[in-house]
Amino acid sequence: MPIRINLDLELVKRKMTSRELAQAIGLTETNLSLLKSGKVKGIRFNTLEAICAHLGCQPGDILEYVPEEE
């Protein structure tokens, strides 16, 4: 998939656990884990907004486009 999720990196920068973020934004740890691993096909804008608001970052800090090699 050409979209890479860098949520782990943002959590490390802030010395925060997935559990803390999940509780803060009202998401289950399981769903946050699936998001971090890239096993989801989409993300709701309100979830992305909550993550960015809590982490103080931009969507581009979390989502990255990496073209696939031909």
UniProtKB/TrEMBL annotation:
Signal sequence: where? Answer: none
Provide the protein name.
Putative transcriptional regulator
Origin organism is Shimia marina
PROSITE patterns according to UniProt: HTH_CROC1 (PS50943)
> Which residues belong to any copy of the HTH cro/C1-type domain?
13-62
GO terms, molecular function:
DNA binding
